[in-house]
Sequence to fold (246 residues):
Amino acid sequence: MATDRRSRRAGAGPHERPARRAVKPRPKTHPRPDPLRFIRAHMRLAPVPTIPEIRLYMAHQGSGLWRLGEPYEDGSEPPAPYWAFPWAGGLALARHILERPETVAGHRVLDLGSGSGLVAIAAAMSGAREVTAADIDRYAVAAIGLNAAENGVTIAALGSDLTTGRAPAVDLVMTGDLFYERELAERVTAFLTRCLADGVEVLIGDPGRAYLPRSRLRLVAEYPVPDVGEAVTTAMKPSGVFALEP
Fold:
């Protein structure tokens, strides 16, 4: 019996291989720039607004931060480059430490969600015995190392999420600007609560974001600072330094 040629072309014959499905091409990704090279080449080393004692590598209009926003090969999104700017809570914390060095002098200090390392650098400059700066972004870890060297201080930089673990072996935990998202704020607050339970003091710098645990905070000081990315000549806004209480 003759075979229907149209059926064979359609893959319907008994010994035919099934037709291949069209494979959707994966989006083309570009290699992510080396952190140290990118920061040195594209950030500008300059005094921090309202804190001229400290110099940081900071973003400017020609930095091309978009290069760091491309998805990873598995399609996941990289962290936003928060490390490239000084933020209001960190500015307030750093100013407070420099004006009140007894806050950190002789202590073991952790700067959680350190970003550029601004708060950690202020602590080291003010006489802290040991300073650790933690951030999940590898570009932030690189920036912390470069910024510490430029300011002549020694800081241990960690590229890991400490909020899921136990309280670290430190005397003081400081964190700025981590209360902008509910899930993150809840995780950070739970970690800081564990630190308090182990006898670790906690200071928070924040301009009053939505998920700040206000009912557990005692205002220690307040400082006028510029918004992120704004020039120091723009209108200042208050940002607080708070002690977390049980």
User: Anything to note?
Assistant: Strands lie at 44-48, 51-58, 108-112, 130-134, 156-158, 172-176, 201-206, 217-225, 237-244. The CA atoms of residues 2 and 90 lie 81 Å apart. The longest helix spans residues 182-197. The chain is about 25% helix and 20% strand.
